[in-house]
């Protein structure tokens, strides 16, 4: 019971305890300077530097806990928020730029069913039963049929080959799992990614803002790098046209090189090769690209 007392006045932050999102979330917490010691098999860890308790839960259950106010905030997938039907009860505070995939209707490549509509009245297997019911309800009504929707907790792709389903609803990222099971996607129901969600009535509004801002900084730092280079003063405009920066580039004079300036600006990480090529073409030298672990922009 002492443990429960330890949670008093702490913001409760639910994070996935395993699975696809776990490693990414640990990196986010580390980058956000949220320190904690998690003892083996314990699903609650107190932060050592902030009034936060991390609660390790299945990603699928996190939306429910956040919506009910049992925890103040959490990290889960948009698909899980939708499946739990709590999108109106929680605030989606921030998209996290990982866990990106699509929720798709899939059928055997060589089978009879090649559309969503052709599955009406047949057998569908999924981990997303409540969402599936919503999808098939109007179709069933229009066709006067009843689609059978069955829950399985994982390895959904096996259901068609094993004779349990005519089609499945499951997540697709690279498509490898689907193809290996002899399936293809005939309809995309939603695209999804991981999100930071918060209870709308949490009393920890300031701390929620602080955590959100830190996590936003980690995500932004992954998208941007700092590009710095030297260029002749007369070519500054050619350089800054290539690296305008987020709010303008920083330009400073080079003491020992008359007529030269040093420029630094944030650029999108994925464009760094092209930008360095262009800077070289306009006569920039000593072009450096530096990554950073967090930022506030
Ligand atoms: N292949 C994928 N690519 C990207 N994101 C995915 C993928 N599979 C799942 N996700 C995202 O990760 C979330 C959690 O999926 P995961 O399969 O890890 O479930 P889990 O219940 O946490 O773990 P497990 O399946 O091991 O029990 C999903 O709701 C989805 O948002
Ligand atoms: O398109 P892909 O890149 O192959 O990814 C899709 C697979 O990833 C997820 O499952 P996961 O591997 O998390 O395991 P699970 O089947 O136990 O849920 C999802 O349920 C698919 O099976």
UniProtKB/TrEMBL annotation:
It comes from Circinella minor. It catalyses: 1-(5-phospho-beta-D-ribosyl)-ATP + diphosphate = 5-phospho-alpha-D-ribose 1-diphosphate + ATP. Pathway: Amino-acid biosynthesis; L-histidine biosynthesis; L-histidine from 5-phospho-alpha-D-ribose 1-diphosphate: step 1/9. Its EC number is 2.4.2.17. InterPro entries: ATP-PRT_HisG_long, ATP_PRibTrfase_cat, ATP_PRibTrfase_CS, ATP_PRibTrfase_HisG, HisG_C, N-reg_PII-like_a/b, N-reg_PII/ATP_PRibTrfase_C. GO terms for molecular function: ATP binding; ATP phosphoribosyltransferase activity; magnesium ion binding. GO terms for biological process: L-histidine biosynthetic process. Residues 59-217 form the ATP phosphoribosyltransferase catalytic domain. It is found in: Cytoplasm. Belongs to the ATP phosphoribosyltransferase family. This is ATP phosphoribosyltransferase. Its main location: cytoplasm. Keywords: Amino-acid biosynthesis, ATP-binding, Cytoplasm, Glycosyltransferase, Histidine biosynthesis, Nucleotide-binding, Transferase. Gene3D superfamilies: 3.30.70.120, Periplasmic binding protein-like II (3.40.190.10). GO terms for cellular component: cytoplasm. Residues 221-291 form the Histidine biosynthesis HisG C-terminal domain. The keyword Nucleotide-binding applies. PANTHER family: ATP PHOSPHORIBOSYLTRANSFERASE, ATP PHOSPHORIBOSYLTRANSFERASE ATP-PRTASE.
């Amino acid at each position: 019971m002492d443990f429960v007392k330890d949670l008093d006045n702490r913001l409760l932050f639910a994070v996935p305890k395993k699975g696809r999102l776990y490693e990414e979330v640990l990196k986010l917490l580390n980058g956000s300077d949220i320190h904690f010691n998690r003892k083996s098999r314990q699903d609650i860890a107190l932060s050592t530097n902030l009034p936060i308790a991390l609660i390790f839960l299945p990603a699928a259950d996190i939306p429910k806990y956040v919506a009910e106010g049992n925890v103040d905030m959490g990290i889960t997938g948009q698909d899980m928020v939708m499946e739990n039907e709590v999108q109106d009860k929680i605030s989606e505070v921030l998209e996290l730029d990982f866990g990106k995939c699509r929720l798709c209707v899939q059928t055997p490549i060589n089978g009879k069913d090649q559309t969503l509509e052709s599955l009406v009245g047949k057998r569908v297997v999924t981990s997303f039963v409540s969402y599936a019911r919503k999808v098939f309800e109007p179709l069933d009504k229009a066709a006067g049929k009843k689609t059978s929707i069955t829950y399985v907790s994982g390895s959904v792709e096996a259901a068609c080959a094993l004779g349990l389903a005519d089609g499945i609803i499951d997540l697709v990222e690279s498509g490898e799992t689907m193809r290996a099971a002899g399936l293809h996607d005939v309809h995309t129901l939603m695209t999804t990614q991981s999100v930071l969600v918060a209870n709308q009535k949490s009393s920890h509004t300031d701390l929620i803002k602080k955590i959100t801002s830190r996590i936003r900084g980690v995500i932004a730092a992954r998208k941007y790098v700092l590009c710095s280079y030297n260029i002749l003063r007369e070519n500054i405009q050619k350089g800054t046209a290539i690296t305008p920066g987020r709010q303008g580039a920083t330009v400073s004079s080079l003491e020992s090189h008359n007529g030269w300036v040093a420029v630094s600006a944030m650029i999108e990480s994925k464009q760094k090769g092209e930008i360095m090529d262009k800077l070289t073409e306009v006569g920039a030298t000593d072009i450096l690209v530096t990554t950073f672990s967090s930022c506030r922009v």
